[in-house]
Structure formats: C-alpha cells, structure tokens
Amino acid sequence: MLWLFRFYQMERRNFIKNSALAMAMLSLSKTNLFAKDFSQSNYNFKPLRNNVGVFTEQGGTIAWLNAANGFVVVDAQFPNTAPHVIAELQKLGDKPFKYLLNTHHHGDHTAGNIAFKGLVGNVVAHQNALVNQKKGAEKANSLEKQLLPDTTFGTGWKAPVGEEKISAYYYGSGHTNGDAIYHFENANIVHVGDLVFNRRFPFIDRENGAHIGNWITALDKIHTQFDQDTMFIWGHALDPEKITGTKADVKAFQNYLEQLLSTVGKEIKSGKSKEDILKIATIPNAPEWKGDGIQRSLTAAYEELKGM
User: Fold this and answer.
1) Taking Cα atoms as reference points, which of 303, 225, 294, 305 lies closest to residue 262?
2) Strand duo 164-170 + 180-184: pairing
3) Fewer CB atoms inside 10 Å of the end CB: C or N, the chain?
4) What value does the CA radius of gyration of the chain take, rounded to a whole number of Å?
5) What is the pTM of this model?
6) CB–CB of 191/170 below 8 Å?
7) What is the CB-side half-sphere exposure of residue 57 using CA atoms within 13 A?
8) Residues 6 or more apart from 66 whose CB is under 8 A from it?
9) Cα four-point dihedral sign 214, 216, 222, 224
C-alpha cells in the first residue's frame, strides 16, 4: 500500500501545480482579453519604413525604432514574448534601449515591461496609465513583477532619438482614461494602441475610465491631425496580417463606435431591456466588425447611456 500512498501524493502535487498554473493563466486572460494561445511560440518581426517596424506574437502589437544611437520600443506584450523582440533588435546592433513607450496600462501591453528592467533608459506613459497599472498590480499582488513607467506626461511628450523625432499625444478618455499615441515623425508612423481595434469588437474598459463618446472625439482629432501618407499601427486586428492601416481605417472604427451608441440608444428609447439589447449580433451600418465580445461593446454603451 505504500506505493499507492506515494502515487496518490504525487498525483495530488501534480494536480495542485497544474491547477495553480491554470488559475494563473485564467486570471491573466481575464485582464488580457486579447492574448493568443499561451502555447504559441511563432512571432513576426518586420520593418515598415524609415527604421520603424512591428513585432507580433501574443497580445498588443509592438512597434520598434532602430535609430543610429539606440532602440525605442512601443509596448511590451508579456514576459515570455518581450525577450523575443529584444533579441531581434540586438541582432541589429550593439546599442542601448533608449525608451520603452506604453500606450496604456493593460497587461497585454505592459506585463512584458519587466523584461526591459536594467536594459532600458526610461519607461514612458501617460500619467493615468501609471496609476492604472500600479492599482491593478497592487490588486493582483503582483507589483514586484511590474516595471512601472518612470516618465509620465499629461497632454504630450517629445524626444529626439537619432534622426527620428517622437511625439506622444493624449486626447482624454477613450479605451481607458490613459491612452496615448506615439508618432514617429520622420517615418510618419503612428502607434495608436487600443484606440483602434481593426475590424474586431473592442474591449471598452469602463472600470478604468473608458468613455465611448469621448473616444469618438479622440478618433476625430487623430483623423484630422495626420495626413494621407500616415501609416497607423493598431493594438489589435481581426486579421493578424492587418495590424497597420490608414486614416480610412481610423474613420471606419470611429463609425463603428458612433453606430454602437446610436443603436443602443434607439433600443433604450424603445423600451428594450439590457438583456434584449445584449442579443444584438451585429452593429447596423458597421458589419465589418466581428469576432468575439460584441456583448462587451453593448454593455459598455448601455451603461454609458444610462449613466451607470
């Protein structure tokens, strides 16, 4: 019977270990609704133009700059994927990492910050993103696993890196209350983070200050500010090959949000219950937006319009 007791103990330890891992992954997936399969190991590292490129693997799209005097990285995905973009950049030259720029606080954009600890000069984000990241980490008891921004800004921030000029802009609450965009001016490439979900139902983080009405206004400002030659990098896309786009795509997503508010508003006015509204499967006049999670959009719109 001793062997049976030992077998039971071993199985019990394995169960506890695997259950803990599963719960940890579940917890992460709840804060990161857009991470891909955790077992995925393939990644894509490619240039776009003027020494600016993108990296995709799990979570939000990463942008990078390979300047003569150092590297700049926008967003960091996860601790298991960030080392891949670091390694690819280090193949391009023995140069310092000047800046790590965060578009907002969500874990699929900032959990990988920790991989840059001791490597990067400064971590930059909007001041609200720092508050949100720290608050979320304290709530999850994971502050020691974070590399928090050490440089924050209100309405904007600028820095030269080699021949490139980087400008950050903040337009108020949108996807969260701390979304910033980063413009590589010479390359004329803008990383908008999760202010645009390309043809994919967005996550609207009302717990951290999201506001659809102001999001629409922010997108209008972005559309007006940049020219027809501007290339945009999206935080997420329905088609993983379409993580970049144009002003027309910014306008299309703005239209999605406008149609979302209009549709839910009409349903509320007609006396429909929240339960009935959540049965909507497609947003009228914005059929290109697909995927999982339309209920997130509908719920956020309902709560915003009801003043909840």
Assistant:
1) 305
2) antiparallel
3) N
4) 21
5) 0.87
6) no
7) 24
8) 51, 52, 53, 89, 92, 93
9) negative
Q: SS3 for 53? A: strand
Alpha-carbon distance of 214 to 210, in angstroms, equals 9
- C-alpha dihedral (67, 68, 70, 71), degrees to nearest 10: 20
CB atoms within 10 A of CB 213: 15
10-59 pLDDT, tens per residue? 333 433 333 333 333 333 333 444 444 333 459 999 999 999 999 999 99
Q: How far apart are CA 154 and CA 39, in angstroms?
A: 38
Q: Which residues does 127 contact at the CB level (< 8 Å), separation at least 6?
A: 152, 153, 154, 178
* Amino acid residing at 182: Y
Which amino acid would we find at residue 151? Answer: T
Amino acid in position 180: A
Residues 155-210: pLDDT tens digits?
999 999 999 999 999 999 999 999 999 999 999 999 999 999 999 999 999 999 99
Torsion of CA 261, 264, 267, 269, to 10 degrees: -50
